[in-house]
Amino acid sequence: MRKTDQPERISEAEHAVMEVLWDRGTASASEVCDSVCETRDWSLATVKTLLSRLVQKGAIETKPDGRRFLYSPLIARADYVGGESRRLVDRLFGGRAASLVAHLAQTEALSEDDVSEIEALLKELKS
Predict the structure, then answer these.
(1) In 10 A of CB 122, how many CB atoms?
(2) Are the C-beta atoms of residues 50 and 20 closer than 8 Å to each other?
(3) Residue 114, SS3?
(4) Whole-angstrom Cα distance, residue 81 to residue 2?
(5) For the segment 73-93, what is each residue's pLDDT rounded down to a tens digit?
């Protein structure tokens, strides 16, 4: 998997397909559809369109396997999440992660468990 390059932005629908590929490693269009089509009310054609877009964006690769194609991620989930997190903080909070946490705290979007986890992370970072 490629680690340094970020592909073009991935839509919410494309992200659902990526989650299947990240979980499975490699899958055919039918296998992806088996995972997402029913819950999202998609057809196999929709999945194939999303897979094609992800190939064009450089997020996944395709390899022939007999009469079908297998798809595999070219970017790691952690790298994608890191890039998206950074973009969110940059765009909405002026590049300051503390502003994001403050906003979440002020809007009561953090549970006591969340606060405990954040405190533990901060303690770990300081040591």
Answers:
(1) 11
(2) no
(3) helix
(4) 14
(5) 999 999 998 888 888 888 888
Q: How far is CA 13 from CA 8, 10, 38, 41, 104, in A?
A: 14, 8, 14, 12, 26
What residues contact 111, with CB distance under 8 A and at least 6 apart? none
Choose among 71, 73, 52, 55: nearest CA to 63.
Answer: 71
With both helix axes pointing from N to C terminus, report the angle between 44-56 and 29-40 in degrees, rounded to the nearest 10.
120
Place of tokens 């039918």: 30
Taking alpha carbons only, the member of 49, 43, 45, 39 closest to residue 11 is 49
| Confidence (pTM) | 0.77
- How many CB atoms are closer than 10 A to CB 99? 13
Q: Which helix (H) or strand (E) holds 64?
A: strand 60-65
Q: If you search the block for the tokens 């680690």, which residue do you land on?
A: 3
- DSSP letter at 27 equals E
Average pLDDT over residues 106-112: 85
Helix segments in the chain, DSSP class H: 12-24, 29-40, 44-56, 77-93, 97-106, 112-126
